[in-house]
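Q: Could you predict the 3D structure of LysR family glycine cleavage system transcriptional activator?
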Amino acid sequence: MSRDPTLNGMLYFEAVARHGGVTKAAEELGVSASAVSQQIKLLEQQLGVRLFFREKRQFRLTADGERLFHSTSAAFRMIRDARQLVARQRERRQLILRVSPSFGVRWLGPRLAGFIHQHPSWDLHVDATPDPTDFDREAVDLDVRYGAGDWSGLYVEDILDDYVLPMCSPAYLAHLREIVTPSAGQADLIGQARLIDSVKTLYRWDAWLERAGITPATDDARLRFDRSSMALQLGVRGVGIVLESVTLAHDELADGTLVPVCPALGALRFPAYWLMGPSRNQSRRIVQLFRDWLREECARHEALTQALLARLDCPVVPIATPGTRHPGQGEAIEISGS
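A: Sure. Here are the predicted structure tokens for LysR family glycine cleavage system transcriptional activator:
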């Protein structure tokens, strides 16, 4: 007689004893009924005792079977509980993050390596989507969202201001200077340019032109895109002037592939990027770590942005968040990602 019955044999025995038959045990285990019967027969041979009375298709435990079932059921219950505990612990070590697409690709993505190096044991899941999270229906810990910050019932933190100004490639700017009169001012350049519009940004061309007192020569050639990253790519390619985020175009402005068209008119500054999520998530260790890391990255970026604008001779013009409405002024606006 073997003193070491197989684990499979014990597992199959416990299932047959619990179900009172081979068929249901086989269905639960995902094996054939004959495989279960063979394991039970082998286990009885190894133990040298009879474990079941076979009565037609019913299996009734013998006294030895009762003793073994009591022990195996307790042991497998402990194993299942331990497995569930490990699974729950793994879930608690996971951060599920949602982010506005262009911000995720251009700003957050390149910086995430730093967070991962600092916290290599945490699982990170990032979903870049233009739609804000429905935290009541979706398993998301935090959302880094571009918008007006008017999300009710959530923890909402202003993490980063945006700076908006007209920009284009140096070649396109040179082309504009060739087609306008020498006495024309910088703002007159925009009146002759093809405008590239990011339609989901908070501050768009119509508002900027009105503020600057500029009337474009024509609106026919305006290009419209629902992703800031696409609009900026066309600006770099010399297709036209894009009114866009210094936050998203920081690298291009720093290396000169994009240049301000009217630096004297300044960069409009307003709150635009927010960290939000259910209050219940804010006490989680991983959420606190990510929030602290993100604040540090945003502070570092803010200092770099201020230095960059100073080098480009662009003064900062603070304004309120465009498009915000106060209670009683109508329905809340819908803000998508940028």
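Q: Anything worth pointing out?
A: Residues 7-92 form a domain with the Arc Repressor Mutant, subunit A fold (CATH 1.10.10.10).
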